[in-house]
Every structure is written in C-alpha cells, then in structure tokens.
C-alpha cells in the first residue's frame, strides 16, 4: 500500500474530512522533498514541488488532526526546518537563514522549510507585509541564489534559494480579518490551495478505538526514502503530448470563461505538474510522472478553482454568483429532464463553475421550491426534475425549443 493509500485508509473512521488528510499528506511530501527534485519546464525554468495548503472550513469541522499528523511525520524525518507555533514573519525568515544543528546528522544549512500551524491567524503574527513576503517566497523558480530581507534598523537576513511549504487552516471570519483584499489580485490567494469542507467525514464519539488508526512512525518510514531523492523528474513523450493537448484546450476554451482575478487559473499548469510530482512520490517514489499521476492531479487541482473564487468573493464581502450557479444546475438538469442525474455527474460536468458546497446549496433551494426531487440510484445520490410542477414542465418545454 502506498503512503497516500495508507494515510487515507487509517484515517477514514475519524471525523476530519478525508480531503484534509490527503492534502496534508501532499504538504508532508512537499516539505520532505524540499528543492532537491524538480521538473524541467521546457528549459525555461525548473518547477519545484513546494505548495501552500489552506484547510478551510467552519470551527468544529476537524482541521487540526490532519495538520498534527503531518507535523509528526515531518518531525520524524527531520530533514527540513520545521517552523511550528506562533511567530512573526521576521522570526520565520531568521530561522530559515540560520544553520540548524541535528544530533547525529549533518546540520541543515539551506533555506528550505515548512511553516505549519493549526490556525493561520494565530500562527503568523499580524504584519501588513507578512502575506506579501509569503507570496514572494512561494516562487522558488524565481528565487535562485541569494534572497535578502532588510529591516529598517539596518539588520538583514540572507536566505539561499528559499523553498517554503506552508500548511495551515482557518475559517471564513478569521481569514477575512487576517488577509488584506490586495492579496486577491496576483497575490497570495492565487498561489494557495484552499481545501474547503463544511462537515465532518463521519460521526465518531471516540468512545471506542477504531479498527484502524494512523501510525506516525509507520507513515514516516514510508516517506523516508523521499529525503534521499535528487534531480529532475522524467516524463515519457506520449504523456508530455497528453498534458500539452490538455493545456492548449484549457487555455483556449475554458480559462476565458472562468473570469479569474487571482492568477490561479494562469498558474494551473504549474499546479498540475507540482501536484503530479507529489502524487508520484506518494504512490511510487520512482521520480517519474505517468498518466495516472497527471489524471489524479487534474482531479484534485481543477476543482480548487471554485473555492479560490469563493474566497475572493468573501474578501470582497460580496458574492453575486448564486443566481448563475442555480441557472447552471437547472440547465443541466433540463437537458436530461427524463433521467436521473447523479451527483458525481453534475460535479464532473460543472466542476469548473461550482463545487460540492455550491451544489448542496442549489439543491436545497430547488427542493424547497418543489423543482427537484432527490433519489437514490445504485447507492449514489441522484436528482430528477419534478415534472409534476407545471412551472418546471413549462421551463423544460421552453428549454427544448
């Protein structure tokens, strides 16, 4: 069983959403890899697999356990500077630039590190420049060599090829208070993976020990070989063609309609490749990208476009897209008016315009209006338009014309 499979299998009985564990696992791999591996982007630049992950959801949705497990694994590997707890951005930079001794091991002399905290606003002490600096540090591809940070008092800190992985969590209210709106446009938000969940994975009182539970020592052993990986990832020509054709289609036919303000969409190819590298390491650790890695990366990366846009709307304090989302769902259901339409089918078809939270809100409203019925089809949630409602029947008839 691979690291990612083991991680998900041993946490499935807990309340924390599985996606929180999955993405914390990818961030763990990212931190361990540091800048020792990369993918050559056509000779233009080397793409490193560092990522910023924000677990996003209401209080009580169990964001902390996944982050705590990632911290335990990274601590056991002990090959990067782990910055944990409450700190100023200046303290983080200073630690990244300081040689770290390790008992029985070579000291860490580079400027690679993992910033990890269970709550964004309490782990990074508020500073108007903090988010700007994190934005700059994300772009390892442009930070080759020396990176200087100078303070007003004359003190300065020097980093060498800084490579940062960031794993943290927050809820909507705290995020609004902490992140300035200026970071919407081409800033931090466009570089961050927001993993949004609004309900627990299951109900578990923890009165009884689960049949399976995560073992940090075992998980650390599974990813320990990643600390020794060095050099570029390889990809066969046929898979390069596959990715190239997808990108050409995405840029020409899909990106223009997404109206992205953050820069996330323009970086989507880099994000797909970064995540494919992490998936490859979490599945096989053979330093090769194959079609399965690329497809899995599509499945986890593209649905993040919608939460990113929602977060942007939250910072702006307004979101005028609800009517459009209802219209998208209605049009799709009307095109299949005589059939049951599975939930997964709708999310796959409309995944670049709404996510599972959006669909839940739309369906609840449509049910209250008597427009949609929910049914169970082969164990899957499915929807059907209520054709007994005269208004619905008239809408479908007009749609067909």
> Class of the largest domain, according to the CATH hierarchy?
Alpha Beta
Counted beta strands: 17
Number of domains: 2
* Weakly predicted, low-confidence segments: none
SS-derived structural category:
alpha/beta
For the CA atoms, what is the radius of gyration?
Answer: 22 Å
Characterize the biggest β-sheet: 5 strands, parallel
Strand content: 15-25%
Q: Which architecture name of the largest domain does CATH use?
A: 3-Layer(aba) Sandwich
The overall pLDDT average reads 87
Based on CA inertia axes, which overall geometry fits? Answer: globular
Percent range of helical residues:
40-55%
Distance between the termini: 53 Å
Quick take:
By secondary structure, this protein is an alpha/beta fold.
Characteristic terms for this protein:
single chain; alpha/beta; Rossmann fold; Arc Repressor Mutant, subunit A; 17 strands; 45% helix
């Amino acid at each position: 069983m691979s690291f990612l499979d083991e991680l998900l299998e041993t946490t499935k009985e807990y309340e924390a959403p599985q996606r929180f564990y999955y993405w914390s696992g990818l961030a763990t791999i990212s931190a361990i890899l540091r800048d020792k591996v990369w993918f050559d982007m056509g000779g233009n630049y080397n793409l490193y697999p560092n990522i910023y992950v924000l677990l996003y959801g209401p209080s009580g949705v169990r964001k902390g356990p996944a982050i705590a497990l990632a911290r335990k694994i990274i601590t056991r590997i002990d090959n990067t500077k782990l910055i944990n707890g409450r700190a100023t951005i200046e303290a983080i930079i200073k630690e990244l630039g300081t040689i770290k001794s390790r008992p029985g091991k070579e000291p860490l002399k580079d400027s690679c590190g993992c910033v990890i905290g269970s709550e964004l606003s309490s782990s990074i002490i508020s500073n108007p420049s903090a988010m700007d600096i994190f934005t700059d540090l994300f772009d390892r591809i442009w930070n080759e060599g020396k990176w200087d940070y100078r303070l007003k008092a004359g003190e300065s800190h020097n980093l060498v090829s800084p490579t940062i992985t960031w794993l943290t969590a927050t809820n909507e209210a705290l995020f609004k208070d902490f992140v300035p709106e200026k970071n919407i446009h081409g800033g931090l938000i466009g570089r961050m993976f927001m993993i949004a969940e609004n309900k627990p994975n299951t109900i578990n009182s923890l009165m009884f020990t689960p049949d399976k539970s995560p073992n940090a020592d075992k998980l650390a052993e599974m990813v320990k070989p990643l600390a020794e990986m060095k050099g570029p990832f390889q990809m066969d020509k046929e898979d390069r063609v596959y990715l190239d054709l997808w990108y050409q289609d995405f840029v020409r036919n899909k990106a223009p309609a997404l109206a992205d303000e953050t820069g996330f969409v323009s970086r989507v190819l880099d994000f797909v490749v970064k995540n494919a590298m992490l998936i490859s390491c979490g599945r096989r650790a053979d330093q090769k990208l194959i079609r399965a890695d690329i497809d899995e990366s599509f499945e986890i990366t593209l649905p993040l476009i919608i939460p990113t846009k929602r977060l942007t709307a939250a910072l702006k304090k307004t979101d005028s897209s609800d009517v459009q989302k209802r219209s998208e769902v209605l049009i799709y259901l009307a095109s299949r008016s005589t059939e049951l339409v599975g939930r997964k089918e709708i999310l796959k078809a409309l995944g670049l315009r709404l996510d599972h939270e959006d669909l839940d809100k739309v369906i609840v409203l449509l049910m209250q209006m008597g427009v949609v019925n929910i049914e169970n089809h082969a164990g899957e949630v499915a929807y059907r338009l209520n054709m007994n409602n005269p208004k619905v029947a008239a809408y479908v008839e007009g749609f067909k014309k």
